[in-house]
């Protein structure tokens, strides 16, 4: 009888203390019971009169500065709301701030330009993110690198890329898998292997038809920076000095001179080199003209005629004989706007088209 | 080094180098001085050995040449004049350092390369040439770029 009672008592102890009660021996009973003051684990005794401890966990992708700023803001709020229910308020605040912060910090690792311009309303250069490491790049920079890597691995002409517009999603996955298998691409920042999830998320960017590769706008900040202006000034000065001493050899123009073309002269030398250029023009036109006797008549030099901006302008009609040259001095035709205004006048001459029609 | 008529920098490369130059002027890596020149495509960088290392107060010169496609392609980095005596630096100035070749990433900069090289110098425990120095230098006699070498990176201690 006594034994049964003891047994029941042990059962009761187990039921009451659960995991805290360890039975070493049932009979005679030998129990180890872990006992704690009832208030030990109970934060409700302190909260909300004492603000809770706050910590941010798993902040990958959030820059250190932002993490500490967010945490201190949340702690401030918790202090403020002491003695009031605050858990939801704190979570909502964190959510709002994270939403505001949800844009990448710093520069694109390829071009070193900021990914998001601070004061720019519309972001001109879209960016993308690798899902597994959260590193961000300008899309165009990443694509340029991606294509460069494929080219280096001789994969740019592989079949994988030919299916750039797969009809079904499973085709995309298959293509991505195959490409990854062959190329083994890694994040340029952290060298984490680019995986299938990353690939699927950027697939549309990678296979977008860029058409002609767009050069991005020249960076005004760089081009007009003081160092660059000084550098240019120094070079211009050097160039002028060398030019003055006759050290600059002007590259020969490879233009083929055809009848009807306006040939400009370098303005500084137009006068003293006129005859020289005319003779070189002769040689050039000799090759394009079959009749040797035409030489002398091919050229008509109309010096000092203002023909701003039309250095290689061509006559509209041909084979009019000497009339075409008369037209240029005719004020009526000038008024018709064949020629732009007289500012920026360039010296030059028109090559007559006399013999073109008769050939 | 007589590199066979290098191509000029692409606009992207020039833009990026301007950025790096500007950043360098504001915040140069410790122990390095860049003598600014008119040539954006070749930087000459002065290195001073870090205190309490074998190369303390010694001065060396790095020549950094940028390819047309920088930063897709790594720059060519060599020591000029008297290269430091180091188990990974050949007497012709070539440096056996993986990030300059196979492990290059466009996210790296001249500044980060410099830091790697100084760290390589600082962790050296002996002033000696690589064991295969003579053979390698003989192979490179006709001005071969170190980027044409097939490097074998084996030592991660120094």
Automatic annotation (TrEMBL), chain A:
<dbReference type="Pfam" id="PF05773">
    <property type="entry name" value="RWD"/>
</dbReference>
<feature type="domain" description="RING-type">
    <location>
        <begin position="108"/>
        <end position="191"/>
    </location>
</feature>
<dbReference type="GO" id="GO:0061630">
    <property type="term" value="F:ubiquitin protein ligase activity"/>
</dbReference>
<keyword id="KW-0479">Metal-binding</keyword>
<feature type="compositionally biased region" description="Basic residues">
    <location>
        <begin position="335"/>
        <end position="345"/>
    </location>
</feature>
<feature type="domain" description="RWD">
    <location>
        <begin position="8"/>
        <end position="101"/>
    </location>
</feature>
<dbReference type="GO" id="GO:0008270">
    <property type="term" value="F:zinc ion binding"/>
</dbReference>
<dbReference type="InterPro" id="IPR006575">
    <property type="entry name" value="RWD_dom"/>
</dbReference>
<dbReference type="GO" id="GO:0016567">
    <property type="term" value="P:protein ubiquitination"/>
</dbReference>
<protein>
    <submittedName>
        <fullName>Uncharacterized protein</fullName>
    </submittedName>
</protein>
<dbReference type="InterPro" id="IPR039133">
    <property type="entry name" value="RNF25"/>
</dbReference>
<dbReference type="InterPro" id="IPR016135">
    <property type="entry name" value="UBQ-conjugating_enzyme/RWD"/>
</dbReference>
<keyword id="KW-0862">Zinc</keyword>
<dbReference type="InterPro" id="IPR013083">
    <property type="entry name" value="Znf_RING/FYVE/PHD"/>
</dbReference>
<feature type="region of interest" description="Disordered">
    <location>
        <begin position="274"/>
        <end position="359"/>
    </location>
</feature>
<feature type="compositionally biased region" description="Basic and acidic residues">
    <location>
        <begin position="317"/>
        <end position="326"/>
    </location>
</feature>
<keyword id="KW-0863">Zinc-finger</keyword>
<feature type="compositionally biased region" description="Polar residues">
    <location>
        <begin position="301"/>
        <end position="315"/>
    </location>
</feature>
<feature type="compositionally biased region" description="Low complexity">
    <location>
        <begin position="278"/>
        <end position="293"/>
    </location>
</feature>
<dbReference type="GO" id="GO:0005634">
    <property type="term" value="C:nucleus"/>
</dbReference>
<dbReference type="InterPro" id="IPR001841">
    <property type="entry name" value="Znf_RING"/>
</dbReference>
Automatic annotation (TrEMBL), chain B:
<keyword id="KW-0808">Transferase</keyword>
<keyword id="KW-0547">Nucleotide-binding</keyword>
<dbReference type="GO" id="GO:0061631">
    <property type="term" value="F:ubiquitin conjugating enzyme activity"/>
</dbReference>
<keyword id="KW-0067">ATP-binding</keyword>
<dbReference type="InterPro" id="IPR016135">
    <property type="entry name" value="UBQ-conjugating_enzyme/RWD"/>
</dbReference>
<keyword id="KW-0833">Ubl conjugation pathway</keyword>
<feature type="domain" description="UBC core">
    <location>
        <begin position="12"/>
        <end position="158"/>
    </location>
</feature>
<comment type="function">
    <text>Accepts the ubiquitin from the E1 complex and catalyzes its covalent attachment to other proteins.</text>
</comment>
<dbReference type="InterPro" id="IPR000608">
    <property type="entry name" value="UBC"/>
</dbReference>
<comment type="similarity">
    <text>Belongs to the ubiquitin-conjugating enzyme family.</text>
</comment>
<dbReference type="InterPro" id="IPR023313">
    <property type="entry name" value="UBQ-conjugating_AS"/>
</dbReference>
<feature type="active site" description="Glycyl thioester intermediate">
    <location>
        <position position="96"/>
    </location>
</feature>
<protein>
    <recommendedName>
        <fullName>E2 ubiquitin-conjugating enzyme</fullName>
        <ecNumber>2.3.2.23</ecNumber>
    </recommendedName>
</protein>
<dbReference type="Pfam" id="PF00179">
    <property type="entry name" value="UQ_con"/>
</dbReference>
<dbReference type="InterPro" id="IPR050113">
    <property type="entry name" value="Ub_conjugating_enzyme"/>
</dbReference>
<dbReference type="GO" id="GO:0005524">
    <property type="term" value="F:ATP binding"/>
</dbReference>
């Amino acid at each position: 009888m006594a034994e049964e009672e003891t047994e029941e008592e042990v059962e009761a102890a187990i039921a009451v203390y659960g995991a805290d009660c360890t039975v070493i021996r049932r009979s005679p009973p030998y129990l180890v019971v872990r006992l704690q003051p009832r208030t030990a684990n109970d934060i409700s005794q302190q909260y909300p009169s004492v603000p809770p401890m706050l910590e941010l966990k798993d902040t990958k992708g959030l820059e250190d500065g932002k993490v500490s700023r967010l945490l201190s803001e949340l702690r401030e709020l918790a202090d403020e709301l002491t003695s009031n229910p605050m858990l939801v308020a704190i979570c909502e605040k964190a959510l709002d701030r994270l939403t505001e912060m949800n844009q990448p910090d710093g520069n694109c690792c390829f071009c070193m330009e900021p990914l998001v311009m601070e004061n720019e309303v519309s972001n001109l250069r879209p960016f993308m993110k690798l899902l597994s490491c959260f590193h961000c790049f300008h899309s165009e920079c990443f694509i340029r690198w991606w294509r460069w890597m494929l080219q280096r691995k001789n994969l740019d002409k592989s079949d994988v890329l030919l299916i750039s517009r797969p009809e079904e999603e499973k085709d995309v996955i298959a293509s991505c898998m195959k490409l990854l298998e062959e190329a083994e691409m890694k994040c340029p920042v952290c060298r984490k292997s680019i995986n299938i999830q990353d690939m699927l998320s950027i697939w549309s960017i990678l296979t977008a038809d860029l058409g002609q590769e767009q050069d991005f706008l020249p960076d005004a900040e760089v081009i007009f920076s003081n160092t660059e202006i000084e550098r240019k000034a120094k070079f211009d000065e050097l160039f002028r000095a060398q030019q003055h001493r006759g050290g600059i050899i002007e590259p020969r123009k490879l233009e083929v001179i055809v009848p009807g073309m306006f040939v400009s002269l370098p303005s500084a030398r137009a006068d003293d080199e006129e005859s020289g250029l005319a003779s070189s023009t002769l040689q050039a036109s000799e090759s394009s003209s079959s009749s040797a006797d035409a030489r002398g008549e091919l050229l008509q030099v109309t010096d000092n005629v203002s023909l701003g901006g039309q250095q290689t302008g061509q006559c509209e009609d041909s084979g009019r004989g000497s009339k075409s040259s008369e037209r240029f001095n005719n004020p009526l035709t000038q008024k018709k706007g064949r020629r732009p205004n007289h500012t920026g006048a360039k010296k030059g001459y028109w090559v007559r088209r006399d013999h073109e029609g008769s050939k | 080094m007589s590199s066979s008529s290098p191509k000029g920098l692409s606009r992207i490369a020039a833009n990026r180098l301007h950025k790096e130059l500007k950043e360098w002027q504001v915040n140069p890596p410790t122990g390095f001085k860049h003598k600014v020149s008119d040539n954006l495509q070749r930087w000459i960088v002065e290195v001073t050995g870090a205190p309490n290392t074998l190369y303390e107060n010694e001065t060396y010169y790095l020549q950094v040449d940028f390819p047309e496609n920088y930063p897709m392609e790594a720059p060519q980095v060599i020591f000029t004049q008297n290269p430091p005596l180091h188990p990974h630096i050949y007497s012709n100035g070539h440096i056996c350092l993986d990030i300059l070749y196979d492990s290059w990433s466009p996210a790296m900069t001249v500044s980060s390369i410099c830091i790697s090289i100084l760290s390589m110098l600082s962790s050296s425990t002996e002033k000696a040439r690589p064991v295969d120095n003579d053979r390698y230098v003989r192979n490179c006699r006709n001005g071969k770029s170190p980027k044409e070498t097939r490097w074998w990176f084996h030592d991660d201690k120094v």
